[in-house]
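Form P-L/3: holo structure prediction, ligand pyridoxal-5'-phosphate.
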Amino acid sequence: MTETWNKRTKLVHGGTRRSQYNEVSEAIFMTQGFVYDSAAQAEARFIESGPDEFIYARYGNPTVAMFEERIALLEGAEDAFAAASGMAAVNGALTSLLKAGDHVVSAKALFGSCLYILENILARYGVEVTFVDGTDLEQWRAAVRPETKVVFFESMSNPTLEVIDIEGVAQIAHAVGATVVVDNVFSTPVFSNAIAQGADVVVYSATKHIDGQGRALGGVVLGSKDYIRGTLEPYMKHTGGSLSPFHAWMFLKGLETIDLRVNAQADSALKIAEALDGHPALARTIYPGLSTHAQNDLVQRQLGGKGGTVLSLDLKGGKAAAFAFLDALTIPVISNNLGDAKSIATHPATTTHQRLSVDQRKELGITDGLVRFSVGLEDTGDLIRDLKNALARIG
Ligand SMILES: *Cc1c(COP(=O)(O)O)cnc(C)c1O
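OUTPUT (holo model):
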């Protein structure tokens, strides 16, 4: 029945399991373990446990299971496994699939910690990684080989907001039998159905739009039942990256409103981008939803025309101008999360991407003047006024 529901209904009711008390709001099962009626029942459950039978919270928990089912319904995935953070999810998704001697092709525009896993950790275990410009399908085609096991990319890159063609890359990867793993955080599960577009495995940091109010760390990996239960779950449950039931409960509540929130944030982001585009203090206003964005065709096809909830502003005056601009903002906070109800401004070159070399930053278009702006739920007019005032203050 739930499969016939439309998105908003799935987000409110999907995955609900009620206890004997028939509570309205999902219960928080704040327990590490579960009591067995008998020794024989314990034995049977360790051999095989049914969907409502739990053993230990690292393996599964009713509140976590509700979250997994609800997000799987939203994504249109067969199954999901929740993780302690977005990075536990990315690491689990990749490491559970790979062994020494395998080859990975990855887009080079990545979240700093994703880059660390691909560049530093996997290499230590004998996995070779080739980096490509994710927006150039010719580079993907030239990089894949018969021993390519996984291709990995962020479907919308941080912080330069390049959009990668999921369907195009998936066709190239599948031709050599590789598994397509997509970090879909910036696209959000509301705007992009990566699995329908060819991804085999989709990863979210729930810390971002799924929580949406900046409270808790979490993540989730989605894919086929075979992959989630056969490959990922054994890796996650034995290595310990499982999600807290309390955080799962927050994310269940977050999913109830995610469609309303990210649509409001994306609508606001477009108005802000349009209001600031061409401002004399800006070298560039980057927002995938702008009709002038180089990949707007792909945005129409892959994201239903929505440009996401983040925009990036490249200030002409470099670091000094970026810092003066950040310090002059009165409504947005200076921080480094995104997808929050509060607007958040970040200077990637000195924070999230500080670890990169000057050359790497240059190659990725992360200039010293670049400011990433995660649009919150404040009044759009107030935000535009505040951003314009701050731009005027830097001259
Ligand atoms: C935040 C983020 C992550 C990591 O998520 P955490 O919850 O902070 O561990 C991974 N990928 C992208 C694109 C992100 O924005």
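COMMENT: Residues 2-254 form a domain with the Aspartate Aminotransferase; domain 2 fold (CATH 3.40.640.10).
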